[in-house]
Write a structure and sequence with these properties.
heterodimer, A: 169 residues, alpha/beta, Beta Polymerase, domain 2, 19% helix, B: 205 residues, 9% strand, globular
Chain lengths: 169, 205
Amino acid sequence: MPYHPPAVDDVVAAVRDRFAGTETSVFRGQTRLVVPEPQSFDLLAFLKERGFDLLVDVSCVDYLDYPDAKHRYGLVYLVANTATNQRLTIRVFVDDPAPTVKSVVPLWEGANWLEREVWDLFGIQFEGHPDLRRLVMPEEFTAHPLRKDYPLQGRGERHNFPVITRDHS
Amino acid sequence: MAVASSNLELPENVVVSKLDELASWCRKNSLWPMPFATACCGIELMATGASKHDLSRFGAEVFRFSPRQCDLMIVAGRVVMKMLPVLQRIWQQMHEPKWCISMGACASTGGVFDTYAVVQGIDRFIPVDMYVPGCPPRPEQLIQAIIDLQDKIQREGTITGREFDTRQRQERKRALVEITSPHTIDASRNPIMQRELAAAALPRS
């Protein structure tokens, strides 16, 4: 018997009431809201006010060459209400050439490193982020390697270091 | 040890040898390893030092975590390009004479990790004396590599370190892949690359 988190119908109704462009879908008991990019911050702030106090994860999917995809990047926000154990998935779609969303660090401090990781690997700009530096790749890296158009073996970065011979030491 | 020529009368308990061979004999029997363990090879490296396999039987049990006190670097595990400047700096901080063992498939060739982030063999960027195959190698294999290295030190070693003049031999081993674009990494953020560029800009006197 799979575990289904508590229903979120009341929250979804309130969100749809307030944000007109929101689409809703349910998959295996998990509710997903797709929100247009300009409204994403307001919607997340609204959810936080309604008791969704925990930001579980911020992630991203690159839909390059994906069948029937309308947008290039799909951001994923997972939020939870720690009092009622309600859970929600929020999707925000952005596109090239400058994929940008508003940072949610003002809402959840924990979003800081999550957004840095998404910036590092996908190159999504987070507007208003206090310290948008690379998180996992080295500082001298210039690409965003989890984009689908980045080659698996890289563009020569891993070879682009000085060679230390016996003479150096 | 060389045998004294027959016309020289030696007192008891005196052996005549070459200074080079004496220095190499001392060096090979007191290798102090610097464990650069980044992955599962590091576990085998620890097993090699532990009681069952007991690396101290070969005079190489004194693992030191400071490069200043070591003369044998054992690179055990994959090295990612973020770690490579660290590896190079630690290698530069070790005192001469020093040797390097590349332990396992990943350190030697990148192994199965043929991706943008993993260095495809540390020998492209620092000198390596011994390669240990295996994924991960068993402690016996590492011990064999250390015995072979001791043999190499005894055969080639000189007190002045002439055997380390290998610049030309090493340069032919430069990265196998041509660098397509010089702008794929930002050299201004890498201290070792900065030093290289500054040295290259200076006129040779």
